[in-house]
Design brief:
Blueprint (H helix, E strand, L loop, with lengths): L1 E4 L6 H13 L3 H14 L4 E2 L6 E4 L7 H39 L1
Antiparallel strand pairs: 1-3, 2-3
Helix pairs in contact: 2-3
Amino acid sequence: MVSIELWPPSGRSGRALWSTVEASQPGLFAQLVTVPLFHDHHILIHVAGHAMNVVKAIPPLVISDGDIERFATALDDVVGRAERRLFSSTARVTLSLGRRALRA
């Protein structure tokens, strides 16, 4: 079994956004990774537990270097897309709340 802990982005704004989202829904980012990894790349991983940004993979006993490379490439793709979705979703919510506040 292999476990991977997902950490916040390195940039200041990305880290602040990550902290805000994690304060309201701990472990959300790990959930944003598991479904597209299975749906788009046919790789099954699991969230390791409630409110945790840890995913676990259980590879077969016999695995090739090509399989490992495919997994790493797919994980990189999905994590990158999840980061963009997290940021764009948060921006939409922020704009919506701002508009409501201006109307009130």
